Amino acid sequence: KKLAVKALVDARPDLCETLERLQAALGAAEEQRRAAHAAALAEAALTVAEAVRDEYATAKRARSALDYDDLIVKTQHLLERGDAAAWVLYKLDGGIDHVLIDEAQDTSPEQWRIVKALTAEFYAGNGRDRDRGVARTIFAVGDEKQSIFSFQGADPTQFDRHRAHFHVAASAAGHDFIAEPLIQSRRSVPEVLRFVDAVFAPEAARAGLTADGAVLRHEAHRAQDKGCVEVWPTFKPDDAEESDPWDTPVDLAPRHGPAARLAHRIALAIKGWIGKARLPGHAARVKAGDIMILLPRREPFGSAIIRELKQLDVPVAGADRIRLAEQIAVMDLIALGRFTLLPEDDYTLACVLRSPLCTVGEAELFALSHGRAGHLWRELQRRRDETASWREAHDFLTAMRTRADFAPPYEFYAHLLIARGMRLMLLKRLGQEASDAIDEFLSLALAYETENTPSLEGFLAWVERGGA
């Protein structure tokens, strides 16, 4: 904040002025350096992107293939460019009476241009309409508030812009134009809808929600149903001592962080409701299946709330979606399989030794690895009797290597998790929330065997490549 304390500034104001000039010059030079660095990075990224685009275009031409974006762009060119466009529109005009645009808020500018080209004749006169007795119509359904930004080039501002365009075109041709807002909600209850309207009542809160900034108003179809909105105080990060990054994974969620404390608070509230509270208008008491937890994003809060609910013995369906190969329990199981196939893979063996499947500590792993002459597995075989954990790990891994030679994937992992009790070890270290990933991994192993020749190597490659 200050280059010098007040006493020094008062004693030598000339030196302070010199420091300030140096500071300004250094700041300007640093800004220029950052701008040059950013420009170099942008140029490099654009160079790679252009090369990828050219390669992709060449591959499509070689196969005479079009992707989704090509269909839109080439259709737009067909309808807008050259003398052929008039003929195409003439041929199409005879067969189009009605145009329906669904999810119109997610329609891109290029798609809107196609719609305008196809419907230009709708408002050029009504002679054809009289001849056939059919009024040609455009029907657009959409809600700016539900726009999925950047979805296939979606631009929600185009919705209001083209509503105005078609209003002018229809009025000029003497056609009816109806803009019908649907304010009745069939999903929610009056209390929730009133809360939403109150949140977006200030003009600043509505900025960016709709193009015209209109005041929001909802009506509940379920007018007699009851609801409640509670706003809880937020949880702030505490000043707890930070863990040593040498021993702790950098992405480990703190046990007493805001997400963990909020998850515990919610889990306690839910446990208090089950079997005791009654929903308004319902005679039965609340059960676990009556409750749904909605999240803006799945992590890091999703795993925290599942863990807290399971620790309190609250029945929970688990996460609705997990990327299997990114779950720690599954990564440990895959690492074990990879080791049995290739014992010379030192890194994979180190991962297995530090996993819940073995009891080797960080210091023991370092002592085993540091300064060794050959592969880690050979070192473990040679020094297995030096500590109890090394002997247990060696005997366990030797047995699993032997079984991997003849057991199909499902039998291999079922024996590991059930007969050897490793499921309990995984849950003890990783928490009850890991059970969903373990169960799904076993199900995949069984599914793989029904469709493929049972092979541990084939199964592991299939899981890692499939992105299940």
Characterise this structure:
It contains 20 helices and 4 strands. Helix 17 (409-419) packs antiparallel against helix 19 (434-451). The protein is mainly α and 468 residues long. It is extended. It starts with 5 loop residues before the first helix and ends with a helix. The strands form 2 sheets. Strands 1-2 form a two-stranded parallel sheet. Strands 3-4 form a two-stranded parallel sheet. The model has no long low-confidence stretch (mean pLDDT 87).
Overall pLDDT metric: 87
Order of helices and strands: HHHHEHHEHEHHEHHHHHHHHHHH
Molecular shape: extended
End-to-end Cα distance, whole Å, is: 52 Å
Strand content: under 5%
Continuous helix count: 20
Structural class: mainly alpha
Rg computed from alpha carbons, rounded to a whole number of angstroms:
33 Å
Give the low-pLDDT segments: none
Largest sheet: 2 strands, parallel
What is the number of E strands?
4
Task: Please give the order of strands in the largest beta sheet.
Answer: 1-2
Q: Assign a percent range to the helix content.
A: 55-70%
Summary keywords:
mainly alpha, 3% strand, extended, two-stranded parallel sheet, two-stranded parallel ribbon
